[in-house]
Write a structure and sequence with these properties.
With 308 residues, the chain is of the alpha/beta class. It contains 8 helices and 19 strands. The chain binds flavin-adenine dinucleotide.
Length: 308
């Protein structure tokens, strides 16, 4: 562990890859530590239609292009999961699941967040075939269809409001006896005239053939199983940012997202940045993640000039 890197980037989704491209161009001596290449987009089955420059591109294809761009620069990649980051003086010590240790002057956390899964039968089978975790991304594919939104919080209601521009009917399923969305969102949902809210509903399974055809939920009041014919299921039961390994060094909001400065994406700790879906930014999109990656890499370069 003698070598001290200028920068360690944790995670190789759009945020981390973009940070890597920018860092390389500044000739920063950079190490990537990542569990995979691509993050959420690498697994996305339906097309991306909102990344500038590409009217329509699959997630894996976009990631392939980003990765090729990164690999045209000088990068070092360590396939591993980070389990801890500490600050020792002006350096960071990064520990991995494979019990390796690396040191650097700056760190960019780009570890993203995963949507909390439904964990019901049929979920894995129908991801990308009717099950979606991103209404903004996939909603337009359900024009004139009937869909269910699972989750009656603000994000479920906001997804329903967005989906109402496309679909003909929306069921919102809420586990509790009352929805948790605020009044304003409730009013907006009501105004769509397309939405039916079902409370006390515990989703049991998703079924179909090539695509989703129906869902079954348990009515927690009557204990009866009830079936709804739907073409799509939007999962809105929360996200889990991958930020546990940096506890103690940074500030979090109530969702465990890292709080950063707007200008540079710097966290509470100097030289430590958090970009993309793992930070407290409101909009979780590829373009915002990539933009923040660029911003943080340039900020890390500036900081390095000051301390070296
Ligand atoms: C189904 C779905 C569809 C979507 N569709 C669109 C769309 O059409 N358009 C759009 O703009 N956005 C879309 N999004 C949102 C978009 O995918 C995210 O905003 C974007 O991927 C965030 O990028 P990121 O780099 O911050 O994180 P991620 O893509 O989540 O990447 C995180 C990276 O960090 C790595 N990692 C995590 N923990 C560790 C660790 N401890 N150690 C090392 N590495 C770690 C992961 O392996 C991964 O490489 C969609 C999201 C989903 C789930």
């Amino acid at each position: 562990m003698n070598k001290v890197y200028d920068l360690i980037i944790i995670g190789a989704g759009p945020a981390g890859i973009t940070a890597g491209i920018y860092a390389s161009r500044q000739k920063m001596n950079t190490l990537f530590i990542t569990k995979d290449f691509g993050g959420q987009e690498g697994k996305k089955a339906v097309d991306i239609e909102n990344y500038p420059g590409f009217k329509k591109i699959t997630g894996p294809d976009l990631i392939k292009k980003l990765k090729e761009h990164l690999e045209s620069q000088e990068v070092l990649v360590e396939r591993d999961g980070v389990v801890n980051v500490e600050k020792k003086g002006d350096k960071f010590l990064v520990k991995t699941a494979n019990k390796k240790k690396f040191e650097s002057y700056t760190v960019i956390i780009a570890s993203g967040a995963d949507p909390r899964p439904l964990e019901v039968p049929g979920e894995k089978e129908f991801v990308g075939k009717g099950i979606s975790y991103c209404a903004i991304c996939d909603g337009p594919l359900f024009r004139d269809k009937t869909v269910a939104v699972v989750g009656g919080g603000n994000s479920g209601f906001e997804s329903a409001i967005f989906l109402s521009n496309y679909v003909k009917k929306i069921y919102i399923l809420e586990y509790g006896s009352e929805v948790k969305a605020d009044k304003e969102n409730q009013n907006l949902v009501e105004k769509t005239g397309k939405t039916e809210i079902i409370t006390n509903a515990k989703l049991e399974r998703v079924e179909g053939d090539k695509f989703v055809k129906s869902i079954t939920y348990k009515d927690l009041k009557t204990k009866e199983d009830k079936e709804l014919e739907v073409d799509g299921v939007f999962v809105e039961i929360g996200c889990q940012p991958a930020t546990a390994f940096v506890k103690g060094l940074v500030l979090f909001n109530e969702r465990d997202e890292i709080i950063v400065e707007y200008e540079t994406c710097q966290t509470k700790a100097e030289g430590l940045y958090a970009v993309g879906d793992c930070n407290a930014g409101k909009f979780k999109q590829i373009i915002t993640a990539a933009g923040e990656g660029a911003k943080a890499a340039l900020a890390a370069y500036g900081y390095l000039q000051e301390i070296k």
